[in-house]
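Pilot study result, target chain (160 residues):
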Amino acid sequence: MQGVTLIELLVVIAIAGILAVLAAFLFQETIVGNRMAAQSNKFLSALNFARSEAIEGGNSITLCRSNNGSTCAASGGWEMGWLAFSDTNGNTSLNTGETIVRVWPALSTDFSLRAGSGIAGSIRYDARALVVTATRPRVTYTGDKTAVNNAGSIYTSCTP
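Predicted structure:
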């Protein structure tokens, strides 16, 4: 007679169950990493947009935090959303007569986007596409997703 015993069958089922749980955990980590990358890429694309608009238009473009899409917010994180406007007087404030170029909605509710000490509530690019009001912007991760520099050291701030 050929066949398998009940114990052999239970061992195979247990191994398959362990592998399934491990695969689900690893897949969940991949999903979280991809979502984090998508959210940070959303902000990086806004930075690139503002920079290219400054070059194309030949004037300053400012990105600022915005919770309503029509004014710059005085406080809070960038996850509430942001907007880009043509900053004709270069004061990083959205004044009468300055045009909102584009508005970005809030990030997903389980993400936050905070600025380091060199970036307050706005980032302004001049007509030469140079960052005027902040240190060089870059996205880093905190918590379990830590970004490291080329030397392998963990970033502790967003300053160069």
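One observation from the pilot: The two ends are 73 Å apart (CA to CA). A full batch analysis is planned for the follow-on phase.
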